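Researcher: Please predict.
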Amino acid sequence: MKKCSICKETKPYTEFYKSNYKSRGYQTACKPCAYSLKKDWLKRNNNRYLDTQLRFGFNITVQQYDEMLKEQDGKCKICKQTTDKRLSVDHCHKTGKIRGLLCFRCNSGLGMFKDNLDFLANAIEYLKG
């Protein structure tokens, strides 16, 4: 049993994430409290976190992302739907060129088809059939 440093409840060790940096091998906050802390941190640092992701992942700024979002009217470039979640930056994995912003479903769908035009054409024919 271990006492959470946040909620002060005593809980079994299974309710704590493991950590190589703590002396007993577990974080000091229980899983629900640790999740809450991370969620709060992301809310406070969302723009900085997004900026880092965009700069290192796609070599664009938050301003460029916002411009693309505005050009797309805040909608996914494929399904034209809005979402309450941030749109993903879609890019060609061979050239690195950014194609647009996609919702999670459309971005995942392209990934499942490995950006292969033949696979996508076959899927279209299948749906028509």
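Model: Residues 31-44 form the longest helix (14 residues).
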